[in-house]
Write a structure and sequence with these properties.
single chain; 241 residues; Undecaprenyl pyrophosphate synthetase; 6 strands; binds 3-methylbut-3-enyl trihydrogen diphosphate; binds magnesium ion
Length: 241
């Protein structure tokens, strides 16, 4: 009998490193861009499923700071895919009452991508069921360095700096830390994603390549999360009392 998701114990925030598009395409004898294209279907399915399950925040790692080092032709393919996906999927976001936002150095994206993103962010800003956060030109170290620079620029007294204040300088300042971080494609690493925010996240790895990831895979990850005991440094006995 398959287990049922406990709606009283849902992660508020799920973060996903969508990895394996290139290998998916190569296994089919296609170019890497074909994998990215098919990754969009997985994004649509996952976003809809997350909203229906009742997840409040979904962060998708779509392009890292380090991904700028890929061949220019692949970067171009990814950027034009971003433009067309945002353009086509804004109505999916509206139909599902989902608000779009981004984290990362989005100023460095091509102007067409910035324009599409800003339009979609503006159009969906009143939506309330779930917030979809796209990490674009994002890296955890970039974010922490930026926060530090801005703390100093604001003249915050070093004695006053604590976790709460530091958090206010992160790109995720109005978002709770992810309780669950999923990575596809069988790689067991963080790759510079949400370094501060994942301090106590539950990590879930699956061999599924991103273009094959579907609702059932998301449900499986959530069920796995619900069977874990989160202790936050305490003992098992303390948690159970
Ligand atoms: C993830 O798939 C998408 C991005 C990083 C943009 P990859 O392109 O990393 O695919 P693999 O890991 O090479 O298979
Ligand atoms: C991480 O995937 C970044 C994104 C999914 C956007 P990569 O494929 O870039 O990660 P590494 O380089 O294999 O660690
Ligand atoms: Mg990869």
């Amino acid at each position: 009998m398959s287990q049922i998701i406990d709606t009283n114990n849902l992660p508020k925030h799920i973060a996903i490193t969508m990895d394996g598009n290139g290998r998916w395409a190569e296994s089919k004898g296609k170019i890497r861009a074909f994998g990215h294209k098919n990754g969009v279907k997985a994004v649509r399915d996952t976003v809809e499923a997350a909203a229906e399950i009742g997840i409040k925040f979904l962060t998708l790692y779509a392009f890292s700071t380090e991904n700028w080092s890929r061949p220019q032709s692949e970067i171009n393919a990814l950027m034009s895919l971003l433009v067309s996906a945002i353009n086509k999927e804004t109505k999916t976001l509206m139909n599902n009452n989902i608000k779009l936002s981004t984290i990362g150095a989005t100023d460095s994206l091509p102007s067409k991508a910035k324009k599409e993103l800003n339009e979609a962010i503006e159009e969906t800003k009143g939506n309330t069921r779930m917030t979809l956060i796209l990490a674009l030109s994002y890296s955890g170290r970039w974010e922490i360095l930026n926060a530090t620079k801005n703390l100093i620029a604001d003249g915050i007294n070093h004695e006053k700096i604590n976790e709460q204040i530091f958090q206010q300088y992160l790109t995720t300042k109005s978002v709770p830390d992810p309780e669950l971080l999923i990575r596809t494609s069988g790689e067991y690493r963080i790759s510079n994603f949400l370094l501060w925010q994942i301090a106590y996240s539950e990590l879930y790895f699956t061999n599924r390549l991103w273009p094959d990831f579907r609702r059932q895979d998301l449900e499986k990850a959530i069920l796995n999360y619900q069977n874990r005991e989160r202790r936050f440094g305490k003992t098992k006995k303390q948690i159970q009392n």
